[in-house]
Amino acid sequence: MERQEYRLRIKDLPFEERPYEKLEKHGAEVLSNAELMAIIIRTGTKSETSVEVAQRLLKECSQDRGLAFLHDISLEELKSIKGIGRVKAIQLKAVIELAKRIISFRSEWKVCISSPADVSRLIMEEMRYLKQEHFKIIMLNVKNNVLKKVDITVGTLNSAIVHPRDVFSEPIRNKCASIILIHNHPSGDPTPSQEDIDVTNRIVEAGKILGISVLDHIIIGDGRYISLKEKGIM
User: Fold this and answer.
1) Domains in the chain: how many in total?
2) Last-in-domain residue among 105, 132, 151
3) Which of helix, strand or coil describes residue 114?
4) pLDDT tens, 23-82?
5) What is the pLDDT of residue 43?
6) What are phi and psi of 204, to 5 degrees?
7) Is residue 214 within 8 Å of 203, Cβ to Cβ?
8) Do residues 88 and 195 share a domain?
9) Which domain holds residue 215?
């Protein structure tokens, strides 16, 4: 249970500075990151308002990345920050997860893939902050509409782990026309390794035998991506 040390609340702020009232009057888009976070954490400490706690959290932890740091910071790290504690840490992590799921849901809805940029828009926010390599596929119908995203493996990408039978089991069951391979580089640099290229070639050859086209392999970095198709690697 959180210690009862909080005294300053949002309603203790001057009326024109209260995030609740600003949101009601002007809309959520006019609020700063700190003000939005203050609404979530609700209360401050004996010496700081909730807005000031949020401002300090952003200053100490964001490293000029804005709210993106909330993807990476652990629950334990958040809990250790003065003015946050267990409940507020859980609330912040829950909001970030909801935001990620909303982005993913909206991105997938009736999407037609016509370029690597379309794939990036669909998957970037979901994968750019992951700490391990995740290998996924996007299944497409004959019109290149997204049918489904499928997680294949988590961990180091190599030919032993990424086996064609795992890649094609769902596409075969769903009778999809083609697939796109996707994996992330936790380093943030999407430059393909030789192992990436070898895995891609192996899966492409298996797809030819099965009659399922492998259209591309997209490697996701931090806000950047590389298409092996565009690079002429496949």
Assistant:
1) 2
2) 105
3) coil
4) 988 888 888 999 999 999 988 888 888 889 999 998 888 776 777 788 888 899 999 999
5) 86
6) -60, -45
7) yes
8) no
9) 112-227
